[in-house]
Amino acid sequence: MSRIPNKTRIGLAAVALAGAMSLASTAFAMETLPQGYQLASAEKAGEGKCGEGKCGSSDASAKATQAEGKCGEGKCGDASFARTDTDDDGRVALKEFLAVAPTKSEEFKAMDTNNDGYLSEAETYTYRSNQYTSNGKKVPTELFTRMSQAKG
């Protein structure tokens, strides 16, 4: 059995201690996280994009996802319908609808309750307000001032 001299043992212990101290500042070290980081993520979880049943007409859902913004910034409700109605005839044809929401032809069919191939403001408002109420939410009347007055 070989014996290690005391000076060598002390030297090895010092090297091990210095190594352990340097590891304390690496990725394996624990750091305290800022208070409230979970609160910020919880607030975002309740948010959504226009067209996910949280805003007015998803007629502009494709445009809304291209230019993110909050509901009420011209991306939902009356403003969305007006922007989608590119020929300004007061109704949205399937072609106009698919120009902004190319994958939503089934939704168009569900919204077009009289099956005339066009969405009126009244049909769109009825469909969107039903989405809100079926999710237990209040319909944001400020987004649908004109559409809520439309007659079917």
Automatic annotation (TrEMBL):
It comes from the Bacteria. Transmembrane segments: none annotated. Residues 108-123 form the EF-hand domain. Residues 47-85 are annotated as: Disordered. It holds the Pfam family EF-hand_5. Keywords: Signal. InterPro entries: EF-hand-dom_pair, EF_Hand_1_Ca_BS, EF_hand_dom. Gene3D superfamilies: EF-hand. Residues 1-29 form the signal peptide. This is EF-hand domain-containing protein. It comes from Pseudomonas wuhanensis.
